[in-house]
Amino acid sequence: MNQAQPVTLDVQATVIEVLPSMGLAWLRDGDMREWAVTKSTPGVDLGALTLGKTVCLHVRSVDGKQLPCGCHA
């Protein structure tokens, strides 16, 4: 069986909620998909994320699943 190679895409997303006490932030992209990022996600600085801020979310796609793998402003 062939394993699909991961593909990383850059997605523009807007911050819709920041929960610093939980180490979590929610983002929404232009296709209305919601993404969760944590303080452990590479490039995430929860202190710099504010409601409405647009960020570049790195999304890894493997076997039909899409997972955030990094983020920068």
Task: Describe this structure as you would to a colleague.
- There is one protein chain.
- The chain has 73 residues and is mainly β.
- It has a single domain (7-72), classed as OB fold (Dihydrolipoamide Acetyltransferase, E2P) (Beta Barrel), CATH 2.40.50.
- Helices cover 0% and strands 56% of the residues.
- It contains no helices and five strands.
- The protein has strands spanning 7-19, 24-29, 34-38, 54-62, 65-72.
- The chain has a five-stranded antiparallel sheet with strand order 3-2-1-4-5, with no helix packed on it.
- Strand 4 and strand 5 form a beta hairpin.
Distance between the termini: 38 Å
The helix fraction, in percent, is under 10%
The parts where pLDDT drops under 50 for at least 5 residues are none
Order of helices and strands: EEEEE
Summarize the main sheet. Answer: 5 strands, antiparallel
Structural category is mainly beta
Can you tell me the CATH superfamily?
Answer: Nucleic acid-binding proteins
Overall geometric form: globular
Radius of gyration based on Cα positions: 13 Å
Q: What is the total domain count?
A: 1
Strand ordering within the main sheet: 3-2-1-4-5
Number of H- or I-type helical stretches: 0
CATH topology, by name, is OB fold (Dihydrolipoamide Acetyltransferase, E2P)
Using the 3D structure, state the CATH architecture.
Beta Barrel
Mean pLDDT: 93
**The CATH class:** Mainly Beta
Strand elements, count:
5
Range of strand content = over 45%
